From TrEMBL:
Name by which UniProt lists this protein: Cathepsin propeptide inhibitor domain-containing protein
Source species: Aphanomyces invadans
Amino acid sequence: MKLFGALLVASAAATKQSVSTLSADEQSELRAELSKWREEFGPAAAAQGLLPRATESSSPIEAENDALQRFYDNKLAIEEARRNNPEATFDYNHPFALMTQA
């Protein structure tokens, strides 16, 4: 059973959904949520060194896409955690939300 669980997790990670596959409306909503997160938690995240470092070669568009993907990945992980742990509370409204792997 543990092997099945490990394979399931590995499979889910391998089929990670890209922000680019979202509809224009979904991307717009995600951008608005990220903007709100930045207003509420961006300064605290920056002060604590929790924001991902943009690579020198990345453009502002690439950096924004990276942030959107990290935010989206976090939201998906939270949905999965909620399904697996219905008694627990999970949320992305905290300074650590962009620390997921993009």
